[in-house]
What we know:
By secondary structure, the chain is mostly helical. It folds into two domains: 2-52, no CATH class; 60-97, no CATH class. It has five helices and no strands. α1 crosses α2 (25-44). The two termini are 42 Å apart. This is BnaC04g51740D protein.
Amino acid sequence: MAVKEKLSKQKLLERLLGKKEPLTEMETSLKLKLMSEMLSSRTCEGTGAARKKRRFRMNKELFMRIVDGLSENVPFFQQRRDATGRLGLSPLQKCTTAK
Length: 99
């Protein structure tokens, strides 16, 4: 039953967002309420590591394009040798740990 209610709220919100003419005061308040409910329910789902993993998931192809772009244009992200001749961290390692 909860899934059915959630779907009907989503459909109602989609109709309100897609409406061309200006919304009435009641429709505006309903839209804001539905949006806040949906956003709060998404942030509260899951806990701990599972939540973090889902939240920070990125398409691998996109991430690799970012890594390639950074390694070509930003000297910090290029792999270099240290004073002893050993290779430092790879661009992939640096991008993964960069904040």
